[in-house]
DNA sequence: CGGAAAGTAGCACGACTGTGCTATCAACAG
DNA sequence: CTGTTGATAGCACAGTCGTGCTACTTTCCG
């Protein structure tokens, strides 16, 4: 057989097959055989790239965080976190289109498994720490940009923003009919408006400044 | 063998064994044999009460919602939703002690499975609709109690409160060290303060009129 | 050309899976 | 007493599971 030009690429292809199986049959259905079949290869080939099933699932989970991180960095770039970019950045963690929805489904399945799998829990904790840090940065960026100094409890507001973010992600994922993409965006935007010093609770006369 | 006095009680005992297995080994480990062993009974006895494994998991999930609902009703009672009870009511959905933590773990595991199991999805959707309704009622109760009328987008604020609630639940469950019980409570309380018309973010000139 | 290495294929094993099924036991009705 | 029902026990079947392992093909290096 032809040499694989890029080993990492091959591993990503197989992990993509894991994603498809998890989305179709859940993490329970992600057996070695099912993944090999989905990837149109053999058990032996699969085990050549991943010694155990746990390693396979670990890599599949790692891929979720990597992709989200890449999208976020593509938006924010190297520079500082601009208030004008905040909504776009945080949106990248919500399941608002098919690609991000796929990631969120896999993420939820693996986070649940992480409750009883220390390896997956470690990956989850690292991602959580990253997102929590991002939320802190967002709170700082928004409050610093306010015209007059706001009395903000930054750690608390970061925690609250993080909760809104993951809560929206969970609900947009599990109740897409009740919380479609644009509505999830609107809720997030309203929350960010509050952090900007413009309380989300405003008289009707001032409402209607869509995103 | 002695007749079972209360069939429902027996089913609850078996479902409790399901909970213990799910908490220890995840939903993957909740096989018929494992549950029977945990409940200290036989496969035959288990199958006498639950015809299939799906029925067993369905009942275990139903039990989570039932218990949460019972606790909430115990707090709010028959009367109207008083602003003074709002925090205590919403707290009942957070994993702030061992009992509620157990429910949340089982809930997360089964919600993940619900992504590929229509029966569980139906239970999840019903619970979500209930909680969403509760959040709406909370928003209405708090804004109506405000001294001056606030321009509140009730559906949007309900959605945001629901997101905060489930986000906090998820984080308190998966990152208990980063978000201990009293801190989760504090974040929720800060959010409710905002709904009361006392924004969590206030200009320095208006500060000092405590929560 | 020959050998090493990369990659693929898939069998074998022992363990586990859900469910159908029968057998057994306890308790009550008649 | 007998007969019926509730409840338990556990075997049998036909699979699937993860992984160890060998065999094989293809590619590259010297």
Automatic annotation (TrEMBL), chains A, B:
UniProt cross-references to Pfam families, sorted A to Z: TetR_C_6
Residue ranges of DNA binding: 31-50
Stored InterPro entries: BetI_C (IPR039538), Homeodomain-like_sf (IPR009057), HTH-type_TetR-like_transc_reg (IPR050109), HTH_TetR (IPR001647), Tet_transcr_reg_TetR-rel_C_sf (IPR036271)
Domain HTH tetR-type: 8-68
Highest taxon above the source species: Bacteria
Entry keyword annotation includes Translocase: no
Keywords recorded for this protein, A-Z: DNA-binding, Repressor, Transcription, Transcription regulation
Record-linked Gene3D superfamilies: Tetracycline Repressor, domain 2
Record's protein name: TetR family transcriptional regulator C-terminal domain-containing protein
Annotated organism of origin: Blastococcus brunescens
